[in-house]
Specification:
The protein is an all-alpha fold and 145 residues long. The protein is 55% helix and 0% strand. It contains 5 helices and no strands. α1 runs parallel beside α4 and α4 packs antiparallel against α5. The radius of gyration is 23 Å and the shape is elongated.
C-alpha cells in the first residue's frame, strides 16, 4: 500500500501561537512598513501639507492624502495625519463662524487671531512630528479616529 499525505489542516496546528496568528512580519500583500526617518518626515509633512491647500479653504486635503497613502504603512504617520486632518476640519468650522461674525465687525479680529494661531500650532506640530514626538492640537474636535 502507498503512503498518503494527510489533508491540509485549516485550523491552528500545535505549533501555532494562541489566536492562530502568525508571529512574524506583516500580513501577505500589506505594504512594507516605513523606516523611522521616513515616518518622522511624513508625520511632519502631514501637518505642513495643509499650508498648500489652506488658501482655498481645503487645508484638510494634504493630511487626508498622507493618511490614505502612508497611514497603512505606519501608525506614527497615521496618528499625525489624523490629528492634522481633525485640526484642519475644526479650524475650517472656526473660520466660517468668524466670517459670519465679520459682518458685525467682531469677526475681523477673530480671523486675524485664528490665522496667527493656525500658523503657530502647525509649526509646533511639524517640529514635534519631525522629532518623533506625539502632538495633539488644542481645541480640536475629533472627527476622524
Amino acid at each position: 500500500m502507498s503512503e498518503q499525505t494527510p489533508p491540509p489542516q485549516w485550523g491552528p496546528s500545535e505549533g501555532d501561537p494562541p489566536g492562530g496568528q502568525q508571529p512574524y512580519g506583516p500580513p501577505p500583500g500589506a505594504p512594507p512598513p516605513l523606516p523611522p526617518d521616513q515616518e518622522r518626515t511624513w508625520g511632519m509633512l502631514a501637518h505642513l501639507s495643509a499650508f498648500v491647500a489652506a488658501y482655498v479653504a481645503l487645508g484638510f486635503l494634504g493630511p487626508l492624502v498622507v493618511m490614505l497613502v502612508f497611514g497603512p504603512r505606519s501608525a506614527f504617520v497615521r496618528e499625525h495625519a489624523v490629528e492634522a486632518l481633525n485640526f484642519n476640519l475644526t479650524w475650517l468650522i472656526y473660520i466660517f463662524i468668524a466670517i459670519i461674525l465679520a459682518f458685525v465687525l467682531i469677526g475681523i479680529p477673530i480671523l486675524i487671531a485664528l490665522g496667527i494661531a493656525y500658523l503657530v500650532f502647525v509649526v509646533i506640530a511639524a517640529v514635534r512630528a519631525n522629532a518623533g514626538e506625539h502632538y495633539r492640537y488644542p481645541g480640536t474636535i475629533r472627527f476622524v479616529r
